[in-house]
Amino acid sequence: MHSGTLREGVALGSLMVVLLASPAIAQQQSRARTAPVAQNADTPVVLDQINVQGEGQPGGVLLGGPTTTRTTREELDRQQIQSIADLSQRLEAGISFNRVNGSVNIRGLDGARVLTTVDGIRQPFIQDTRIDRSIGTAFDFDSLSTLDLLRGGSGSSTLGSGSLGGALAVRTLDPEDLIRPGKTVGGLAKTGFDTTDKAWFGSGAVAGRFHNTWALLQGGFRRGHEVDNRGSNPTIGAARTEPNPADFNQYSFLAKLHQYVNEVHRFGLTGEIFKRDEKIQTRTNAVSLTGNYRPGAHQTQEDVERKRVSLTYDYKQPGGFIDEAHANLYWQGVKRNSILNAYRYTSVVGPFARNNEVEEKSFGFNGHLIKSFITGPVSHKLTLGTELRASTLDQYSAGLDGCRPPYAPFSACNNLHTNQSDTPRVEGNMVAFYAHHEFGFLNDTLRLTPGVRFDRYEEKPKATASYLGSSSYAGMPAASSDDAWSPRVRLEYDIIKNAPYLKDVTLFAQWSKGFRAPTASELYANFGAVGTYLRRGNPDLRPETSNGIDVGFRFGDKAFGGSVTFFHTNYRNFIETVQIAPPGGLYPQGGIQGPQNVARVGISGVEANMQYAFAPNWLVRGSFAYTDGKNKVTGIGLNSIPPVQGILAIAYGNESWGGELSTKLAGARKSVATTGSTQGFQAPGYAIFNAMAWWRPMPQIADLELQVGVYNIFDRKYWDAVTVPTGVLAQARDYYSEPGRTVKATLKYQF
User: Fold this and answer.
1) Which CATH topology does 3-750 take?
2) What's the predicted TM-score (pTM) here?
3) Which residues touch 442 (CB under 8 Å, ≥6 apart)?
4) 670, 709 in Cβ contact below 8 A?
């Protein structure tokens, strides 16, 4: 399919699905609005696939808004979603997971510019200094109750630093999620196999209550191999297109205890562990049959671990002095190890090993309260909150090689820096307060919500022996601190309310500002030595800032509803790694590189989603995203901007069985840098097709379900543009392709 035709087809097809509502559709609407869950085998079923905005408030008070969508536990299971890549292929167009830096991409931004929270706890973007890769999503999708996706920077007014592009907020299972009304025990178990990475997986959760005490235990595992692609060349070196052989193990454990006091107060205790380790046998350009590194003698490993303990308090008594209050006191530890075990055959002959470790431990408190009241014809909803956080980051590279100092001038051993810290110990502090006030006029059909958050942060480097003795040490850097105001104003107007065929139509517009504080790596990481190259941090970096608007409308309900959003955001002080000094002098190999505030960026686009239950048991849904972003200094497109994308699906389901056919469409991406070390990948357009079916053999007896999905049915070769590295590619093009035809089978039981 030609990329131009595809681009037009995605835009036209998705927008038509979202926007068209003919009189014939209106006539069927009354039939489609039946109960979302069947009560018996003869009752029509309307599939509940997506929580459309306007049905409650996805994201709650901190993330709620017109650009937030929610995916529930039931929807994650129904779509067989166990990763961000699955979410982007099946439900949410325009987002993706960047495997290069280990982060979520929303509205063309990723890395530290997208914030992830787990049960309201901020997840740090801590980078491995030597390979610029972070931890990514260090949680088990099978442990989640809901997943809220906020697009755009409006979350900065409640979430603070890091949500320039958006936020991914997940909530883990509570015992209340599993115990059904009238029961004292509940549980959920799932197992299956996925050919994408040849993985077996399983999870189980059980919850019980005794009087006012509720408890939950949940655990999960996944064991598999490398992610498949469409490469077919298994040779050794740069011509290889098949993935490197890999083996991984992942497990998680979650425990929760809730104690209620007279149904108004709830106290909670949570403990959680997530761990993943992956071993990779290098077969790509780093090895050769006769070179220094050879096949079988070069193995890398990535270990990720996250632990946390949290104490929570929830209060809810509408009409009281305070309607709601929520507090979360937590400790969290996040660690990443990049490990290399190899043997050198020619230069510095002998074993070569590295363990680059970065770890952050944090202690924090999040809390907010809500009060609603009425004065005359105006309703009010006031939200006040705070976030307090203290953290300590440590980095160390341990290693073994054949070098013994003193080294000869400009020898190979000058490149083998190890048993040192590239970064000092960094002690961080953050204090933030926010306030938002929703005013409701005209019987609450017109709502105006101004709000603001104030942040003050500080990063203080501390000397350690391993840092003072590093090869690139040039004195202790200064502390970095700053503060930021993140205001937001939102206006919503219900132009149609509870109409017979189109339930609600709401126009909205919001303006928001946000910021992103520099990471410890950007501020203080130094790596290199005289005679080679130097990469150095910049303690004078200023925060990145955003200034943007969102305008659009949402309509309807789960039976027939959706939303359309137009957005434009300007960003300043983008932090980018630049060439500070060319190769030569003391650094002949690569010169000096480091981060600087250099760019002015503009990103704009349109997003849309819709679902329509056009007949009993039938549903059609669609998601569309178009994003355009450029560096305003150079006029060149950003490498992190995805192409235009759309998802279309039609599904059928009754009490016993159902299925879905869907397609993911993407246009070609050409608006990127085409030369130099920052050139982007010009990915061609593609269309892939998926099919899924599920069966409940005994719906009246047991909640047992078998599900099988076939994805990329026609084995199409395609590329996810934002997951391909920038610069001149080290491997042949097909090495970076996405998986071909894959099959996932799951068996789930709930009681």
Assistant:
1) Maltoporin; Chain A (2.40.170)
2) 0.89
3) none
4) no
